[in-house]
Write a structure and sequence with these properties.
6 strands, two-stranded antiparallel sheet, mainly alpha, 67% helix, single chain, flat
Amino acid sequence: MQMTADDIFLKLRNGLVRLDKEIVAFVESQGLDPAPGSQAETERANYPNPESLYTVSGICSILLESVSEHVSLLVRAMHEPITPFACWTCVRSMLESSAISAWLHDPKIDAQKRVSRAYAHRYQGLEEQAKFVRAANMPAGEVKKHEDLLDKLERDAAALGLSAIRNRKGDRIGLAESMPSATDIIKLMLNEEMAYRALSAVAHAHTWAMLPLGFKKNSGPQVQHPNGAKTTLMEKSAGSIQMHAFHAVRAAKALVLPVLNQSLYFGWDKDRLVSVLESVYDDIGMQPVTRFWR
């Protein structure tokens, strides 16, 4: 029996709910510490400042929590009345957090590279915080406090052999290495540049993206105005099943990849994780091409 668009939509929505629950249960079952003999345990035992590696994993935990929360928001947005724009902006947020987490816990890099990436990310965050303080017109002392934090971060990085990045004028513009843009890091880790650009078009209020996702033409005739102008009436739409499948596949990937990378890095039970993923993806009806862990 062929499934209707409503049947497929419910499969997608229910599958995301199950995937989130299964991922949370898996992570909780593995505990907080890396497995004996894992890459993470070895790095922490041998790196000159193991606290830096704990910081990496702390950042990743926050990012994964953000991804999981946005899955919950996405599922709510997929209930009546369906809010298609909210669906897309939720997934957009997920992609960036997911990519950064997967980038930091990438099992293909060594400890020094991992710490370097973390310092690049932390510097960017503190720089944005300092800009916020200035924009909020906070007292000079408060601005100085945040500038001092950037200087301290540079000193801490230097103690580990990581240098500041400076422009031709000698101004500090980064730390350890250049932090990739959101688009670049999503392309690198998730291979989802096209999806991120489409999702960003909605977030940036571009009508070429918003019209087909959240509206459809009214069945009535064009409106003829007294001055001769004609307008076509539009009405809100829940969006096509193809559009919902598009963002649901990316949401699932955003949730899974950072957990997969952490599993490989921490020496967690990869076989159990893959078994869970295969089962959930089977329930949703995901095609083999979407199962990137294979």
